[in-house]
Task: structure prediction
Amino acid sequence: MRSISNNLYWALSLVALLAGSTVVANADDLTIATYGGTFEEALRKEVYEPFTKETGINVLADAFSGDVGKIRAMASTGTYNWQLAESESVIAAIGCQQDFLERFDLGRLKLTKDDFVPGSLIECGIPDVIYSVNFAYDTNQVAEPAPKSWADFWNVEKWPGKRAMRKSPNGTLEFALLADGVPMDKVYEVLSTPDGVDRAFASLSKLKPNIVWWETGAQSVQLIADKEVAMTVGWNGRLYSAAHGEDQKQIKTVWNQFRWETSMWIMPKGAPNVDNTYKFLQYATKPELIAEVSKRVANGPAVVAAGKLIPSGLSAELPTSAENLKNGFPMDVQFWVDHQEDLTQRFNNWVAQ
Amino acid sequence: MTVTAKAMFNDLNRSAAVSYRREMRRREARRGVLVAPLFLYLTLIFLIPIVIMLTRSIEDPEVSLVLPKTADLIQRWDGTDLPSEEVFTAFAADIRQAVTDRSLGQAGSRLNYAIPGFQSLLSKTGQKISDVPTDDAAEALSQIDHRWTDNRYWLALRNASSTYSLFYFRIALGLSNTESASEGRGFYLDVLVRTLWMTLVVTSFCVILGYPLAYFLAHVSDALRNKLILLVLLPFWTSLLVRTTAWFVLLQKHGLVNDMGIFLGLWSQPLDLIYNRFAVYVAMTHVMLPFMVLPLYSVMLKIPSTYMNAAATLGAHPFRAFREVYLPLSFPGLGAGILLVFIVTLGFYITPALLGGPADQMLSYYIAQNASNFGNWGLAAALSVLLLAVVGVGIVLLGRLRAANIMREA
Result:
């Protein structure tokens, strides 16, 4: 009988080992999840490394994929893969409403609402940068006069060639309405009605045969660099770094009818190590650091004081510059909190037809 | 023999039988104890989590937990016009409590599945409920948002008020009358049909390609056979992800196949070989082929060649001999191969996700999307149950088919 209880013992220890293997290694380390790419690189160089040097707190990087289900699972089971993530505002707002994200204490960060670009701060998200969704075209494939609106993006007779768009209703349906003649300030009003949604899909259906769908930011610039498409929808930072890379000067970003939104830090509810997280946030929201990160990724700083530190030459290529800002529109966070799921369902259905 | 002697003999016999049976039982128990760790492991790691996950498909507890008084009262409402003042009062009280408990979001996410926007209506109401007078709850609520005078929202509340419901199954099967599903109605049924169809196509390809290959393997010389079997086993031992990525490299726009074709002048523009059904079928058939070939081969090895000779001696055309002698004898292998390929293919996820377009995704893609992207575990669980049910039906049908074959043979 001894050997049997031994067997059981080993089996149980194995089970315990497997169950425990997801726990963060060192209690003092701070694990931060991001979407990766150039943004994470910029954070590592400009924020993580000096932060570790100054405080001795190690920063570990993890991948963030914007999966609401995973964050909710972390909060409800009390098992945390990371303590902080750099996220889209919609997720921060959903997390606040569904209460799986922590509400931040601004006083503890020694910041006030006025330190941030108006409208960017929310209870569960500390804004860092502002980015935008624009379209860009390939000057080698697209003839003059240059396209400058979504109606032009839709016009494949005048500017032939495929178009690349993100396989998501978010940041697609808005442009479909703009192409159909809805003014920028009425987009979400129209999209909130069933007729408006039908109208957006009808407009999208006209372009559908010419659309190549992408799912990651890297694909969006790859498609236009490889000349698979003549125009692409993409994040301004990605488009900027592509256009400033090797031999890609032909990629031109259009600063009209673009949609801007805030990206922010979020913390899952009940995450351990709160002191270190706050230490990090206090460090990461310093204007000079935000300005450095913004410069590297060509995003606009969400901290007002950092805006003044951006050189004017770069400023023209950021969504937050005065001239650009009046030609764009902000994403309606609340709209996407309410409709992300049902419109994604319908979008998937429509794409598959 | 005397009567007593006979009785004694019987007794002896019986006690021998009893002790024999006892011994057998003890041996079985000992064997059982040996597999106990495995059994325990499977139960803990596999069975319990799956059962818990599957029960989520019928659990619907959020509203009755967060808004208990409302959930209790609204079930007595007949659904016409608006609920009674009593329900409004209970609702206002529940919301106040939920705001203190910070639990309103749980109910909100559930109700948002029924009517998009319900979640923010609820959180808006929660924020403003303390600013409005408490004596007339109905008036107070309609002041906060006019949607509280719309009975659709109350109907959705009533539908969500019991702890267990078939809500997620109704969405999965396209029977739901919620407005979010109005356009996507039956979407998951379409996906299910697509999944089944793709599975059938892949299984057929595997039969068409695998049967001759297995036949060939079973009838070549031993030396050659060992080398060829290795060629079947090598991909079988390679990771699924590696094989899928290999097809990605081959089929992409400037991949090996396109470059070769253009180089040889077979076509001038790169063909669309990837992100479509073609790529998915090619890769899935390749991945599944060993599952078809191996059971077929092992059964074919055991079919004596004398049977075919006998059929030929009796004057049967080779085709007839194959159809009436060889084919029925290989049925057990064919059945096992089909069953394996069918079940594994139904649950395919990574290959269509990497090589297919939006219209080529199978049910598991949407299960993953609901579970991790949306965090809608109820719907993910309901879809999983659906997939499991299809597998079950498939197994039963194939089992029947085999039984019928065996009967016919007899």
In short: The two ends of chain B are 47 Å apart (CA to CA). Residues 1-55 of chain B form one domain. The interface with chain A takes residues 33-34, 36-38, 40-41, 44-45, 102-106, 108-109, 112-113, 116-117, 119-120, 123, 179-181, 183-184, 187, 190, 253-254, 357-359, 361, 366, 370-377 of chain B (CB under 8 Å).
